[in-house]
Amino acid sequence: MKIMICGSMHFAREMLDVQKKLEANGHTVFIPLDTQDCLKNPDLNMDMEYCINTNVQEESFNNIPKSDAVLVLNYQRNGIPGYIGGATLMEIGIAQHLKKKIFLLNPPPKVKDLRYSIEIQLAKPIILNGNLNLINEI
Asked: For the chain, which terminus, N or C, has the lower number of CB atoms within 10 Å?
């Protein structure tokens, strides 16, 4: 399966770890263009000039049609379990529109913690509950 990994760039290290695990299971994996850069400089994803010059968002959007599924790495962030940021919400929307499978590594955040959790749930993601091996069974 071809899988696009999505999530906050605060999880850049985890993206690389998950990429290795999925590739070891025979999957083709796309990660955001700036993953390595954000690993070296965690504040880079908030640098508007960098994001515009590298065209990071469009590159990620373009990988979704090439994929069979998106995998959202939604760990706890800012005290919110299952955090999903705005850019990842847009990626989920694109995947939903293109009728791609949408996997969430962990359950989505509670609506009281993140208002647009409703929209995430309406995309009918497959919740892996932390178990990447479930991707192979679906």
From this structure: C
Q: Which of 63, 108, 84, 68 minimizes the C-alpha distance to 11?
A: 84
Widest pairwise Cα distance in the chain: 41
Query: How many CB atoms neighbour CB 84 within 10 A?
Result: 27
For residue 131, pLDDT beyond 80: yes
φ and ψ of 23, to 5 deg: -65, -35
Looking at residue 28, its amino acid is T
8: pLDDT strictly greater than 80: yes
What's the number of CA atoms in the CB half-sphere (13 Å) around residue 34? 24
pLDDT value for 137: 84
Q: Going by DSSP bridges, is the β-strand pair 69-72/101-104 parallel, antiparallel, or unpaired?
A: parallel
CATH for the 2-137 domain, from 1.10.760, 3.30.70, 3.40.50, 3.30.1490: 3.40.50
Give domain limits for the chain: 2-137
